[in-house]
């Protein structure tokens, strides 16, 4: 938490440098500008002070005999992810500066320190953190409302920007573009690579934001079909996918459909149902053991005075990275995640590589799939259960498409 500046509650700074001359100069500059400063030549002692007190900003040398700056930064970030952290660099090593920003530093200052540059960069870093904290408080205030999905998009974009060096590249680029030669600018490969990497990541995230926005706008072409036609179309689609484009993953398909199809009609855009089924097949392959079977079933359910068709894809569950309410690694989707998996950009560390025909990767798939079904008065739900049809009981994950049935 950043303190409010003022004589009664000054901003607190921790300064670490094994060079006493620099340590005194930086500390004096900060104190002259209203900061309360604690300074150390030993990073280990500085960590002890940091752990028992509350600081707004840390300024650290990089090359220190007891502990290098990157290790010191890691220790600070483990204790406090929000405190401003600036490196005191012996030279303007651009590549190193970029790496430090990517590791979690907020900025760097080249020695010998110029007071007005030091204060400007410290205050700029603190202002950026205040903005982030303000946004977090705003998110917490509205966490229970639908705009939490918009907040996730903002958070994802922010993470993508910070992981590629934030906007440090803009400051560095401005410095290099100050002196054109023969009407041309010269840009170092480090800055050029950083700009391209940042732009590619931001482009990807913005494309997903556009895709999600378009989910509310793209045209649906609903048709009314008998329940039998609806079920058989889903069976044919899943069998064709698993036997052709997804055949290399060796997932046999078992079918569990009614012997006698019930009466009733379904009004739905069939292509959108195929897109949702495709997403569910991809998930079933990703999060099930090799060569395990996928089961497609369908049944008619009665809810009050209304009937609904439930089309379920089931796969064998395996232990992943999700934890249950006791904090233990769960098999399949634990109960505390049955809604979370539908959050925008929700993903796990279990499977990073997109599969062929994966239309909505990077944690957007289930969110979009549910949104598509909701537009057609349907729903998409999930849960973990047990399959007792085999010789031994097998834990399974089920995703179920729900569609309202029209009376004949």
TrEMBL record:
Q: Where would I find the Response regulatory domain in this sequence? A: 12-126
What PROSITE patterns does this protein map onto? HIS_KIN, RESPONSE_REGULATORY
Q: Name one GO molecular function term.
A: phosphorelay sensor kinase activity
Q: Which Pfam families match?
A: Response_reg
**Where 4-aspartylphosphate occurs along the chain?**
61
Give the source's domain of life in one word.
Bacteria
Q: Which UniProt keywords apply?
A: DNA-binding, Phosphoprotein
Q: Where is the Histidine kinase domain?
A: 172-407
| InterPro entries linked to this entry | CheY-like_superfamily, HATPase_C_sf, HATPase_dom, His_kinase_dom, Sig_transdc_resp-reg_receiver
| Name of the molecule in the record | Response regulator with CheY-like receiver, AAA-type ATPase, and DNA-binding domains
Source species of the chain: Spirochaeta africana (strain ATCC 700263 / DSM 8902 / Z-7692)
Its lineage reads:
Bacteria, Pseudomonadati, Spirochaetota, Spirochaetia, Spirochaetales
């Amino acid at each position: 938490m950043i303190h409010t500046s003022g004589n009664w509650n000054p901003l607190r700074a921790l300064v670490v440098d094994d060079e006493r001359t620099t340590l005194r100069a930086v500390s004096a500059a900060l104190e002259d500008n209203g900061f309360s400063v604690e300074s150390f030549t030993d990073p280990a002692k500085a960590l002890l002070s940091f752990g028992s007190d509350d600081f707004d900003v840390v300024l650290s040398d990089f090359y220190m005999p007891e502990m290098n700056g990157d290790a010191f930064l890691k220790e600070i970030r483990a204790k406090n992810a929000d405190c401003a952290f600036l490196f005191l660099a012996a030279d303007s090593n651009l590549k190193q500066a970029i790496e430090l920003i990517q590791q979690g530093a907020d900025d760097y200052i080249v020695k010998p320190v110029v007071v007005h540059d030091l204060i400007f960069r410290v205050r700029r870093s603190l202002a950026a953190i205040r903005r982030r904290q303000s946004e977090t408080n705003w998110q917490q205030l509205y966490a229970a409302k639908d705009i939490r999905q918009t907040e996730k998009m903002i958070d994802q974009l922010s993470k993508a920007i910070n992981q590629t060096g934030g906007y440090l590249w803009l400051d560095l680029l401005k410095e290099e573009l100050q002196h054109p030669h023969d009407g041309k600018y010269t840009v170092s490969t480090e800055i050029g690579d950083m700009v391209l990497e940042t732009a590619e990541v931001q482009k990807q995230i913005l494309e997903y934001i556009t895709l999600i926005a378009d989910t509310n706008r793209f045209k649906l072409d609903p048709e009314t079909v008998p329940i039998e036609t609806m079920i058989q179309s889903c069976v044919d689609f899943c069998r064709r996918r698993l036997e052709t484009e997804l055949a290399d993953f060796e997932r046999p398909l078992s079918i569990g459909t009614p012997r006698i199809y019930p009466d009733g009609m379904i009004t739905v855009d069939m292509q959108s149902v195929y897109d949702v089924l495709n997403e569910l097949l991809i998930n079933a392959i990703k999060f099930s053991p090799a060569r395990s079977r996928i089961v497609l079933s369908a049944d008619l359910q009665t809810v009050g005075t209304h009937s609904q068709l439930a089309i379920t894809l089931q796969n064998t569950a395996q232990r992943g990275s999700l934890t249950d309410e006791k904090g233990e690694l769960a098999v399949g989707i634990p109960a505390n995640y049955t809604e979370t998996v539908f959050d925008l950009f929700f993903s796990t560390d279990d499977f990073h590589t997109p599969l062929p025909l994966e239309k909505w990767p990077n944690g957007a798939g289930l969110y979009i799939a549910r949104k598509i079904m909701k537009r057609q008065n349907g729903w998409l739900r999930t849960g973990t259960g047990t399959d007792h049809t085999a010789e031994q009981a097998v834990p399974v994950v089920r995703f179920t498409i729900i569609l309202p049935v029209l009376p004949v």
